[in-house]
Amino acid sequence: MTGSTPPFPPPAARAEVERLKGYSAPLEGRRGLLRLDFNENTVGPSPQVVEVIRSFSEELIAVYPEYDGLREALIANLKASKESLAHPLALEQVGVFNGVDAAIHAVIHAYGSSGDTLLTTSPTFGYYAPCAGMQGMVIEAVPHAMPGFVFPLDAIRSALSRRPKILMLCNPNNPTGTRLAADQVLELASIAPDTLVVVDELYEAFTGDSVLPTVDFERHANVLVLRSLAKTAGLAGLRLGFAIGHPAVVDRVGRVTGPYDVNSLAVAAAFAALRDQSYTDSYVSEVLRARDWIVSVMTRSRAVFHCDGGNYLLVWPERPAAEVAHALRAEGILVRSMAGKPQIDGSLRVSIGTLGQMQRFWEVFSFVSKSG
Ligand SMILES: Cc1ncc(COP(=O)(O)O)c(C=O)c1O
């Protein structure tokens, strides 16, 4: 009787999902170009990572991933870092995710119910909003204070008095570079014990400000810190992120994560990257050197730009941003247009790579960005 069944529409998803606009990023056709558009590592991971990937065995491909030792390796890496840890971390305080994006998704899935508020700043990283939206959460996005995209501390403090379910702090903030000192993050967490304070520290290596060296998760059980090997360590294509916090919080977030969500190649690469911290440190130093250089040439040439934390800056070209992005692409350089984002519409976000790469960027940009 199927032939006589009238066509009917596909079943509807949850109402929240039907309302959702998916998060998409312009990811195609980027290979072989100078990629200053996604704040990635622009030179690639440690040679030790590459070696581990090259020697990956058939057996390891055929079996499900094993995670033994990975959390220990992260803790050892953090302990050995410049600022060390005032309070030791236990294994149950570390969750492993398929990139920090997956951690953000899981945290919001585990903690956000329909009608709850997710408090954050604006503009900020674009993936928080769809994750909140798919739970039916209400987003309260407080603009940064102008001039200078300063963290809106008083407004966030007063919004916390309304007890939002989640406070999402991107520190330093992508894309404005806005920084918040670690003690201020912890102060916000102290005044809002019912709010889960998620600190996305993806770019902390470029500026410090991490809460990890000082936070005591017994006292600040509502703080969850996100760290990734995507950017500084150069594993963006393999996907590996961590969530670090109180064991009960890490446990809840783990409950909404699949048992094999992180793949074996990512695990093997993560071990190698965590072992070779000096490679990442020297990449970070090179980016900081390049940042000083580009800031000084932009200042001298009176470009309109904003550069604070992170490995990126915002620049407002004299000509329309879309035209300039197009002209840069024609010269093999990718940057990200911030069109439509509050406060920064008309700007381009430019990731900071090595000194040589920024010199190349400036050579082309200073030519194509000028009107007349
Ligand atoms: C602030 C911020 N958080 C999280 C992510 C996602 O990180 P991952 O590649 O580890 O998923 C990004 C990537 O651009 C980001 O900028």
Folded structure, characterized:
- The chain is an alpha/beta fold.
- The protein folds into two domains: 29-44 and 278-368, Aspartate Aminotransferase, domain 1 (Alpha-Beta Complex), CATH 3.90.1150; 47-275, Aspartate Aminotransferase, domain 2, CATH 3.40.640.10.
- Helix content is 36%, strand content 15%.
- The chain has 13 helices and 13 strands.
- A seven-stranded mixed beta sheet has the order 2-8-7-6-5-3-4, sandwiched between helices.
- Helix 2 (47-54) packs antiparallel against helix 10 (264-275).
- The radius of gyration is 21 Å and the shape is globular.
- Pyridoxal-5'-phosphate binds next to helix 5.
- The site of pyridoxal-5'-phosphate (PLP) has 13 residues, from helix 5.
Summarize the structure.
With 372 residues, the chain is α/β, with parallel strands linked by helices. Helices cover 36% and strands 15% of the residues. The protein contains 13 helices and 13 strands.
Write the layout of secondary structure elements.
Layout: H1 15-19, E1 34-35, H2 47-54, H3 58-62, H4 70-79, E2 94-97, H5 99-111, E3 117-122, H6 128-134, E4 138-143, H7 153-160, E5 166-170, H8 182-191, E6 196-200, E7 223-228, E8 241-245, H9 247-255, H10 264-275, H11 277-300, E9 304-306, E10 312-316, H12 321-330, E11 333-334, E12 336-337, E13 348-351, H13 355-368
Parallel strand pairs: 1-11, 3-4, 3-5, 5-6, 6-7
Antiparallel strand pairs: 2-8, 7-8, 9-10, 10-13, 12-13
